[in-house]
């Protein structure tokens, strides 16, 4: 089962994000690195959950391979990995989970599934927008997209396995609506999980005859 997003990113987002490809790749590299770190943290916190440990250990290793792939392309294009910046998208979603609730881990899996699903959507948009003039970047996102889809399914499967009586459909509806509101509220930037690009209204041209005075 793959989550269905409640809001679709406009294609204009990808066009604008690709105007600063190095910043985009730096952010993407940190997303991959962060995903590996998050998987390891979840393993440490829930070490008695064998299914989770096995699945997330494999996921962490895969995310690190993806990090290396992104980093190699970043260097080839003349960029350098910059210090990590806070990710308001991921932070906002995770902070919305009630960690004291019995279903906290269940919700954490569903939130992770949504993050992966949103990443897949963004990768698909970027691959299409980059294809004509930035083929190496297009190839990267085409290559990594299927993994994001697989990770989204994996987290839903883990949620079901860890909480077989949980209301997957109901909780996913809750989280997809929250996720859509959150990402639409974020400012645009050349980052994988930034908000939508908003075209600024053109400033009125000054009259050739000069400003009018009352």
Provide a descriptive summary of the structure in words:
The protein has 214 residues and is mostly helical. It has a single domain, classed as Ferritin, core subunit, four-helix bundle (Ferritin), CATH 1.20.1260. It is built from seven helices and no strands.
Task: Write a compact overview of the structure shown.
The protein has 214 residues and is an all-alpha fold. 65% of the residues lie in helices and 0% in strands. It has a single domain, classed as Ferritin.
Distance between the termini: 66 Å
Please trace the helix and strand order, writing H or E for each element: HHHHHHH
Query: Which band does the percent of strand residues land in?
Result: under 5%
As a whole number of angstroms, the C-alpha radius of gyration is 20 Å
Low-confidence stretches: 207-214
| Helical fraction | 55-70%
CATH H-level homologous superfamily name:
Ferritin, core subunit, four-helix bundle
CATH architecture: Up-down Bundle
Largest sheet: none
Broad shape: globular
